[in-house]
């Protein structure tokens, strides 16, 4: 499993609108991306939001984010107007003890 975390630094005056936009955009992701095991939005008002997604395999993640999935975040149309900095992207693998 690969855990993908996108961190958005959000303009505080646009935080609620950005949260709503992201929630609406990702609501249909599980039905559109069969390799997506789970996902959640984590909030740190007034200026940070994380989108955390868990993927079954690298090939599933490539199907979602493209061949540059390790370095290139998926940016939604109009998203940049809410942000104070580019998205920060990190990946982790999971090992069950």
Structural descriptors:
single chain; 97 residues; alpha+beta; Alpha-Beta Plaits; four-stranded antiparallel β-sheet; 3 helices; 25% helix; 32% strand
What does this structure look like?
With 97 residues, this protein is an alpha+beta fold. It has one domain: Alpha-Beta Plaits, CATH 3.30.70. 25% of the residues lie in helices and 32% in strands. The mean pLDDT is 95. The longest helix is centred in the N-terminal third of the chain and has 12 residues, at 15-26. It starts with a strand and ends with a strand. A four-stranded antiparallel sheet has the order 2-3-1-4. The chain contains three helices and four strands; from the N terminus they run E-H-H-E-E-H-E. It has helices at residues 15-26, 29-32, 58-65; strands at residues 2-9, 36-44, 48-55, 88-93. 13% of the residues are buried.
Report a brief summary of the structure.
The chain is 25% helix and 32% strand.
